[in-house]
Amino acid sequence: MDIIESTIQEWRDLGFHYDRDDDRRLWTITGAISGIERFADILRQFANDSRNDVPGEHDHFGPYMYLKIMNVPHKRGFDSNAIFAPRCDFRDLADLVGSRLRSSQPGEVFNLS
Predict the structure, then answer these.
(1) Residue 1: pLDDT band by 50, 70, 90 thresholds?
(2) Rounded to whole angstroms, how far apart are CA atoms 102 and 113?
């Protein structure tokens, strides 16, 4: 398997695609319903894992490992480095993603700002 095929398979295994626009300070997550649900599951798993209690603890995702979910106590947001929040707040973000997904139509774009 060549590098291109391997990368394509890694995106498929992840279930969703992400990209970031540093100029606009924007992360874009795209995928089928099951893929966006997988993103919410990743957030929920991070929130539920007490090993992530240590400030700065994080996980990387995707073929390029650019998507970083990080525990930052007392601060929420995102930048070119990570999506960050207190660990338990990722459960709320996962619930918000799920709620918005359930109320959206196929092909619809929704914003979590």
Answers:
(1) low
(2) 17
Query: CA distances (Å), 81 to each of 11, 19, 22, 66, 94, in order?
Result: 20, 12, 10, 8, 19
Report how far residue 85's alpha carbon sits from residue 53's, in angstroms, rounded to the nearest whole number: 11
53-77 pLDDT per residue, tens: 999 999 999 888 889 999 999 999 9
Is beta strand 67-71 parallel, antiparallel or unpaired with respect to 83-85?
parallel
Three-state secondary-structure class, residue 107? coil
Alpha helices in the chain (DSSP H): 3-14, 33-48, 89-102
Count Cβ neighbours within 10 Å for each residue of 49-66 and write b for 16 or more, e otherwise: eeebeeeeebbebbbeee
Map out the domains of the chain as residue ranges. Answer: 3-102
pLDDT at 51 over 90: yes
Q: Does residue 79 carry a pLDDT above 80?
A: yes
